[in-house]
Structure formats: structure tokens, C-alpha cells
Amino acid sequence: MPNLTIPAVPSILNADLHCHSVVSDGTLTPEALAERAKTNGVELWSLTDHDEVGGQHRALAAAKAQGMQYLTGTEISVSFAGETVHIVGLGFDPDDTDMQQGLLATRGGRGQRAQEMSDGLAKVGIKGAYEGALKFVGNPELISRTHFARFLVESGVCSETHEVFRKYLTEGKPGYVPHRWASLRDAVNWITNAKGMAIIAHPARYRFTPNEEYALFSEFKAHGGRGVEVVTGSHSASEYVKYAETAKEFGLAASRGSDFHSPEESRTDLGSLPFLPGSLTPVWELLADRIQ
Ligand code: AMP
Ligand code: MN
Ligand code: MN
Ligand code: MN
């Protein structure tokens, strides 16, 4: 029997099913995140490092040591309609070799992209950004824009990471390099074939027209995707309402996660979000037999 202590009203579970460790672009170890999550009252936790499952066994052990329930997690980078979309996977087998191969391929090219980002920054007078960003990298396969942002803050170019993204790391800015990530179909299939659930991360963050957003949700659903983040650190209160409606329209379960990266940088702490609206089916209800 699975180790379940889900309360009678499942929507009010303090579940935090989205955050990052040093295995991707967070600043805390899986163990430190587990401790922080527990301190903040999290009952069901998932570590969802970008394109990587290397921290999953540590995170599970840390969750158990803290007395929290755990779902395996990852956040896969996908290219869709000219935009990068993130697909969270929960409750999959972290040792599934097809999924591991797919994530390895998705991570590939980050090193080359980082060199090109550094070249772009050099052209506007910011020297040594590749080496500078590397100092912040915990996993050499996962150099990300976040690590560049930390270097530009450290070197005094900007005062905080959001400013770096705005001025240097988003489309049209000197350190931005377009990149081809996984396909939506592959990402959903890797997760689903490894017995997990695919979930559209923070849908309000994508700059889609209504037609493109409709296409994302329809194709996601057609590939076997089953959930959407409704309450996330990336959404405003009105976006909770909007995507609660979208979840109902497409028959998707709803997820909740802070997207916590760092005590210094993140605006939303682990376990601190409002509960899911009671009218939605929480993803953890459908993943009950995958909870550890
Ligand atoms: P990458 O996968 O290298 O393209 O980096 C994407 C990561 O950059 C996201 O997962 C966030 O952690 C971070 N990020 C993206 N946009 C912003 C922003 N506007 N402010 C701060 N961090 C951001
Ligand atoms: Mn990130
Ligand atoms: Mn994301
Ligand atoms: Mn994230």
C-alpha cells in the first residue's frame, strides 16, 4: 500500500511540486530544500530540476528524513510555436532509461549556447561571462541563463537577477541565444512512458496568442498530458482564476508549486502559496499510487 496521509479535502494539502536545487539552477542542495520545505509546512514535496533527474534519489531520501511525502519531479524545456515552454513531470520512475536519454539529449547544447551567450555579452563590453557563470554552476551539464544572471549581479552590472534577464538575457538582448529544446510530444511521452504525469508549467509566462495557447493545450492533451499548474509563484491571483478555468475547459488536473530557486532571488518561498481552488482535481489525487 502507498504511504498516504492525504487529508479529507485534498485541495488544502500543502503540496509544493515545483522547485530547483544546485542540480539545475537553484542555489540550495536537495537536502537544504527539503529542510526548508518542512519548516514552511510542506506536506507533499517534489524537486523539479530543469532537464535533469540526477537529484531525485537524494531528494526522496531527504523528504523521508524530514517526514514529508514525495513525488519524483523534473521540468523539461520544450520548443513550441517559437517559444520555450516548460513541461513538469511528476511521479515517474527516475531510473527509466528512455527518459534519462531524452533528458541527456535535451541538456546537450547548453555548453555551446553558453559560449555564444558569452560572445554576445562580450560585444557589449561584458568580458569573461562564460567563465564567470561557470563559477555558479553545480552541474556542468546544466549551465543556464540563471548562472549568467548571478555572474552579472556579482560583477555589479545589475543589482538583481530579474534586471539581468530584462536587460541582457531575453529575446533581442545581447546575451540571448535562441535554442532548440525537446519537442512537446517527446517530453510528454518520456514522462508518461515512465509512469509519470506531464503538466504544463506556469502557462501565463508564455507570450502566446489565444490561438497558440489553445494549440498548446490541445496538442499537450492529445499527446497524453494530464495536468496544468494553476497556483504557481509565476502567476498573479487573476491568473489563478484564468488557468483554473482553462484546467476545467481541457479536463486537466491542477498543480501547485512555488518554483523556488534561491532564498536571495525567489519572490515565492517553498510552501507559501494559496491553496488550489476546491473546484479542481489536484494532480496528487491522480498520482496517489506514485507518492512515496
Ligand atoms: P534557461 O533554461 O537557461 O533558458 O534558463 C531559464 C531559467 O531562467 C528559468 O528556469 C528561470 O529560472 C530563469 N528565468 C527566466 N526568466 C527570468 C526572469 N525574468 N527573471 C529571473 N529569472 C528568470
Ligand atoms: Mn530555473
Ligand atoms: Mn519554468
Ligand atoms: Mn522552474
Characterization of this structure:
- The chain has 292 residues and is α/β, with parallel strands linked by helices.
- The protein has two domains: 15-106 and 181-290, Metal-dependent hydrolases (TIM Barrel), CATH 3.20.20; 110-169, DNA polymerase, domain 1 (Orthogonal Bundle), CATH 1.10.150.
- 38% of the residues lie in helices and 13% in strands.
- The protein is built from eleven helices and eight strands.
- It has helices at 30-39, 56-66, 97-107, 110-122, 129-134, 145-154, 161-169, 184-193, 210-223, 237-250, 283-286, and strands spanning 15-16, 44-45, 69-70, 73-80, 83-90, 197-200, 227-232, 253-257.
- α6 (145-154) crosses α7 (161-169).
- The model has no long low-confidence stretch (mean pLDDT 96).
- The protein binds adenosine monophosphate and manganese (II) ion (MN) (3 copies).
